Amino acid sequence: MARPLDLDETRGFLASGTRTGKLAWVTKSGRPAVTPVWFVLDERADGFDLVFNTAKASGKAKAFARDPRVSLVVDEELPPYGLVTLDGVVELRDDPGPKRAFATRIGARYMGTDRADEFGLRSGGDDEWLVRLRPERITAVTDITG
Q1: pLDDT tens string for the chain (146 positions)?
Q2: pTM of the shown model
Q3: Structural domain count of the chain
Q4: What CATH number does residue 108 fall under?
Q5: Which of 35, 36, 87, 108 could form a disulfide with 116 if both were Cys (CB 3.0 to 4.6 A apart)?
Q6: How far apart, in whole angstroms, are the C-alpha atoms of residue 88 and residue 134?
Q7: Is the distance from CB of 84 to CB of 48 less than 8 angstroms?
């Protein structure tokens, strides 16, 4: 039977390994869209933000400017299976220092520390946004197969 995760377990689940987020938003035409994103967590006193980068010219960046509401799911694809769904709003930021720093952290997580700076340079540049997803609703479960 599925077991709910508490907030600390949810943080651990999201930060574990190289799980990819599947981000959903609505396109200009009203069509739903989903894309994978690499991310890291940024702790706050009252919770956390999920942080990633995206190209300023991307469809999702344009969608975020129109409507910042998104949904993101991260799942464990092996038994006993688990998932975290975050519903919330995103904020686009263009601060060069934090943008590069977070892109480097993301690169270290998904590409390894030896390529972190390379990813930071590529994904933390002037043509990229730093995106913060502030969860408003979290659904988190593990042991789905019991």
Answers
A1: 899 999 999 999 999 999 999 999 999 999 999 999 999 999 998 899 999 999 999 999 999 999 999 999 999 999 999 999 999 999 999 999 999 999 999 999 999 999 999 999 999 999 999 999 999 999 999 999 98
A2: 0.95
A3: 1
A4: 2.30.110.10
A5: 108
A6: 6
A7: no
